[in-house]
Amino acid sequence: MEHSTFYLxxxxxxxxxxAVVIGLxxxxxxKRWQVPQLLYGLLACVGPAMSFFLAMRVFxxxxxxxxxxxxxxxxxxTWFSVGDLHLDMGFLADPLSSLxxxxxxxxxxxxxxxxxxxxxGDKSYGKFFAYMNLxxxxxxxxxxxxxxxxxxxxxxxxxxxxxxxISYYSEDxxxxxxxxxxxxxxRIGDLGFVLGMxxxxxxxxxHGFDFLSxxxxxxxxxxxxxxxxxxxxxxxxxxxxxxxxLYVWLPDAMAGPTPVSALIHAATMVTxxxxxxxxxxxxYVEVAAAGMVVAWIGILTALLAAVFGMFQDDxxxxxxxxxxxxxxxxxxxxxxxAYSAGIFHVFTHAFFKALLFLGAGAVIYVLHHEQNIWxxxxxxxxxxxxxxxxxxxxLALAGCPPFAGFFSKDEILYSALANGHVxxxxxxxxxxxxxxxxxxxxxxxxxxxxxxxxxxxxxxxEAPAVMTVPLIILAVGALFAGFYNLPAIFxxxxxxxxxxxxxxxxxxxQHSFFLEFIAIATSIAAFAFGIWVAYKRFGKGAxxxxxxxxxxxxxxxxxxxxxYNALFVQPYKTVGVAISEEVEPHMTDAPVTSVSxxxxxxxxxxxxxxxxxxxxxxxxxILGLGIMSLILSQSLN
Length: 637
What we know:
Blueprint: H1 2-28, H2 37-63, E1 72-82, E2 85-93, H3 95-118, H4 125-144, H5 148-166, H6 173-204, H7 211-216, H8 223-240, H9 249-252, H10 258-267, H11 272-279, H12 281-284, H13 288-309, H14 315-335, H15 339-366, H16 379-382, H17 384-398, H18 404-418, H19 422-447, H20 454-458, H21 465-480, H22 495-500, H23 513-538, H24 550-555, H25 560-606, H26 614-636
Antiparallel strand pairs: 1-2
Helix pairs in contact: 1-2, 1-4, 2-3, 2-4, 3-4, 3-10, 3-15, 3-21, 4-5, 5-6, 6-8, 8-11, 8-13, 10-15, 13-14, 13-19, 14-15, 14-18, 14-19, 15-17, 15-18, 15-21, 17-19, 17-21, 18-19, 18-23, 19-23
């Protein structure tokens, strides 16, 4: 056990050390001696790979323990100690965190390998990989944190790294604004997380700040306090995981390099909110109202993002809105107390979404950073590996059996139906059809039909092996990952659900094969209908549409960004300008100016005694000594 806890602390340390080493190399490299890009790439991949192998070791050691004893922790050091308050930098391994560790480190490693090819020739190659390692290390702290406070350290770390990576191409003002937007919107959500922690610690923190202590003493809280804590924590989750109303930052995050998009959307930052709700499931399960808020926000976000995704023309933004939509599914799952179903979808989504983003990156790479799907077409012949792997990812995203996304999405929809949430289930089925439509709209337009840009098509080739090999590996995951939680109707044992049972507070309705059959049949019908409509419209080629009416409204994302700008940004700027021009000169500048003027006047009075003549200073000294002698003689008498 001692070895296990030691390895547990090393898991986030490797990528963090990689970030430091690569960052120092980048900073201190001079023009006469350039660090080879290959060395940067190797150093960047070593940390995530080592973390993956240690995560596998921790997973296997947990598996060898009895079900009720599957957890252990490691206290790296005492963070601070004030009176009776002791807070350690501690890490917790249990079924939930170990599962997250496995796919975060595995997919993170593949994305780092892919980045070696994608970022080839970039002038800040080293800085990019330093940020990527720091991003992954922060996510591992978030996952492994044994208390909400340590989790929050990783939470803020991924927020900082998202800003650095989204605005990586800082010469473009739009990229910097996108990074600012992500950072600011996430700070709004983080305020909710901080307030939620404050209420939680106020209620039961005296019994311990770590998750195990909080879970053991949750019964000391009344229902109203639990509801307040759950809603505040969920505000934090809506920021990180891009749910209504704080989803607006995620599509703009496409400004960063494509590997960054894959890392943010697939395995790290955006899944943090779902993970956080699952980690606090011992609270959410106690108050049904909190779960319903989570479920309805999730399913409505899924619907809204699917509407937007149907009309976008940027290949990365289509995938970005699909991420927002799939995150909505995950929150719907955890909201209806099917926490294992929500985490299972996090698991499968990591494979097929990383695959789709990296596949899109390969297309962008060979087309010299073209992202408009209406300037593509016919690439199936030019990029066969990218096409077939992306097709597998698209089938998984759309929910085609037997691909991974089908099983995880179906479990969420079945759980909603079985727990009596019929309207959530119906919206989920509708979103499934819309997902199939916009996913295959993208596939048909990009890879089928005739080339729309003949020059770009003629020069297109398959991406290099360092980029295509990760695609092949992820495609295998997108095809087979769902079989780890095969439902009972197919004779499966739902291994992931059983594995997560000690960590999450699932509420299982009595199983019904009839309801499960209904859920599966409607999911397949929705998938088939969505693909059929997409094929009829785009399967044999299509020209760029001219949007009008509702389509134009949806293309512009219902003008939500413009609405937020009018309601919040511009009034805030107006108040800021008014304060700086009208209030600050009188409230802040006036006192400072008055003090400086006072010193100047005192100085002007004193300077008459500073003549610069030594004889005058000698007279001052004699007078001073005389006065001191007089005072001393008087005191002695």
